[in-house]
Amino acid sequence: MSLFVASRAALRASAPLKRSFQLRSYATEPTSSEAAKSSNLSKYLAGLGAVAVGAAAYLYSGSSPAAKKAEEKIKDAVTAAPSKAFTGDWLSLRVEEVELVNHNSKRIRLKLPEENQVSGLQVASAVLTKYKPADAEKPVLRPYTPISDEDAKGYIDLLIKKYPNGPMSTYMHDLVPGHTLDVKGPLPKYPWAPNKHDHIALVAGGTGITPMYQLIRTIFNNPNDKTKVTLVFGNISEEDILLKNELAKLENTYPQRFRAFYVLEKTPEWWTGAKGYINKDLLKTVLPEPKNDNIKVFVCGPPGMMDSISGNKKSPRDQGELKGILKELGYNPEQVYKF
């Protein structure tokens, strides 16, 4: 079963987000004597660890290939943090896997130069891809937000939807394992920090879910981040809902902090969620109110959706004027970010 396929039951429409959110309670801090004991114990255990590593290195040195491999693993365990693949230069990355997600989308796994490397992307940020058609004077450039964890070692995953007459998406859908793709990064977007906002709302359409998923994944991977998240996700049909299995799992795991609302233009008979397009009534019902001080609304989707919800940004560095439904509902430009 594909990683991106979810049961229909997980997508049933939820009631408007009205419940309160409870923050976790924490144990009291240790007393000074307890802290001292803990410190001494930590030093003792650290000493034992150093002795064990030294002894293992001595025993394994100059022995069989299997023993040498074990020695290398021990050395890996005490080495510094993995290096970062993306440092602003173009990289030619080999395609390692290609998975068909639905009728027009694929997951493409790109292998990083070294097995132990991480991408080096911060949240939120993207990468830039490049390819030059044979008859073109200039290369085609397109940004994409990886859907893999930032600390995943040795690879990044891109989720690519093929658009009619889309030169880059068509080229990428023709890639197979063994091919290469030129990639550059990072492209910084919105700098995230744990608990930067009390509540964020994500309004996405189609592949606009990828930067939203980067934020969602980062927040719920961090036990110290208590941010509440509301997602409104519009698509043409049920099969177009990308990452629905991952989203359903998070909603089931964090029901007090994460709610997802789906909107479909073409609905199956069993569908009880919102129909048509993301509209003012839905957003007024489920989004945090603009009068709340520490909130943020993120928007990402096709130009028509952006124009209706928030207005399009002028350039990567110019958010443009806030327009559309969010302005009508009373949100100010500082409360809205357009990916």
From TrEMBL:
<dbReference type="GO" id="GO:0006696">
    <property type="term" value="P:ergosterol biosynthetic process"/>
</dbReference>
<feature type="binding site">
    <location>
        <position position="169"/>
    </location>
    <ligand>
        <name>FAD</name>
    </ligand>
</feature>
<comment type="similarity">
    <text>Belongs to the flavoprotein pyridine nucleotide cytochrome reductase family.</text>
</comment>
<feature type="binding site">
    <location>
        <position position="143"/>
    </location>
    <ligand>
        <name>FAD</name>
    </ligand>
</feature>
<dbReference type="GO" id="GO:0090524">
    <property type="term" value="F:cytochrome-b5 reductase activity, acting on NADH"/>
</dbReference>
<feature type="binding site">
    <location>
        <position position="142"/>
    </location>
    <ligand>
        <name>FAD</name>
    </ligand>
</feature>
<dbReference type="InterPro" id="IPR001834">
    <property type="entry name" value="CBR-like"/>
</dbReference>
<keyword id="KW-1000">Mitochondrion outer membrane</keyword>
<feature type="binding site">
    <location>
        <position position="210"/>
    </location>
    <ligand>
        <name>FAD</name>
    </ligand>
</feature>
<keyword id="KW-0472">Membrane</keyword>
<feature type="domain" description="FAD-binding FR-type">
    <location>
        <begin position="88"/>
        <end position="193"/>
    </location>
</feature>
<dbReference type="Pfam" id="PF00175">
    <property type="entry name" value="NAD_binding_1"/>
</dbReference>
<dbReference type="GO" id="GO:0005741">
    <property type="term" value="C:mitochondrial outer membrane"/>
</dbReference>
<protein>
    <recommendedName>
        <fullName>NADH-cytochrome b5 reductase</fullName>
        <ecNumber>1.6.2.2</ecNumber>
    </recommendedName>
</protein>
<dbReference type="InterPro" id="IPR039261">
    <property type="entry name" value="FNR_nucleotide-bd"/>
</dbReference>
<keyword id="KW-0274">FAD</keyword>
<feature type="binding site">
    <location>
        <position position="159"/>
    </location>
    <ligand>
        <name>FAD</name>
    </ligand>
</feature>
<dbReference type="InterPro" id="IPR017938">
    <property type="entry name" value="Riboflavin_synthase-like_b-brl"/>
</dbReference>
<keyword id="KW-0285">Flavoprotein</keyword>
<keyword id="KW-0520">NAD</keyword>
<dbReference type="Pfam" id="PF00970">
    <property type="entry name" value="FAD_binding_6"/>
</dbReference>
<keyword id="KW-1133">Transmembrane helix</keyword>
<keyword id="KW-0560">Oxidoreductase</keyword>
<feature type="binding site">
    <location>
        <position position="161"/>
    </location>
    <ligand>
        <name>FAD</name>
    </ligand>
</feature>
<comment type="function">
    <text>May mediate the reduction of outer membrane cytochrome b5.</text>
</comment>
<dbReference type="InterPro" id="IPR001433">
    <property type="entry name" value="OxRdtase_FAD/NAD-bd"/>
</dbReference>
<dbReference type="InterPro" id="IPR017927">
    <property type="entry name" value="FAD-bd_FR_type"/>
</dbReference>
<dbReference type="InterPro" id="IPR008333">
    <property type="entry name" value="Cbr1-like_FAD-bd_dom"/>
</dbReference>
<keyword id="KW-0496">Mitochondrion</keyword>
<feature type="binding site">
    <location>
        <position position="144"/>
    </location>
    <ligand>
        <name>FAD</name>
    </ligand>
</feature>
<feature type="binding site">
    <location>
        <position position="168"/>
    </location>
    <ligand>
        <name>FAD</name>
    </ligand>
</feature>
<dbReference type="InterPro" id="IPR001709">
    <property type="entry name" value="Flavoprot_Pyr_Nucl_cyt_Rdtase"/>
</dbReference>
<keyword id="KW-0812">Transmembrane</keyword>
